[in-house]
Design goal:
single chain, 94 residues, mainly alpha, 0% strand, elongated
Length: 94
């Protein structure tokens, strides 16, 4: 027995709605299949997903190579001070 799956056509607008998820590898199942079928023939959407993929890879490159040391967040937040102690635009504390 042969199983044939028919995917309904995805429009450019629909692909735009899921392009980021596709570029990041987060789109799964039927939606991923529909998006890939659309990309088989749509050059504009191929370019959109390509650019998003490159942007995602560039963002990953900004991540530190290792986790910060224990207590890092606590020390940073302590130096920032309690909420509401923001500095005014004059450079002087209110």
């Amino acid at each position: 027995m042969r199983v044939v799956i028919v995917l309904d056509e995805m429009s450019c607008g629909e692909l735009g709605d899921v392009a980021a998820e596709l570029a990041l590898g987060a789109l799964t199942g039927r939606e991923r299949g529909r998006a890939l079928v659309h990309l088989d023939w749509c050059l504009a959407c191929q370019e959109r997903v390509r650019k998003l993929t490159v942007a995602g890879e560039d963002l990953l490159g900004l991540l530190p190579g290792q986790d910060p040391p224990p207590g890092f967040e606590i020390r940073v937040l302590a130096r920032m001070g309690p909420p509401g102690d923001e500095v005014s635009g004059t450079g002087k504390a209110p």
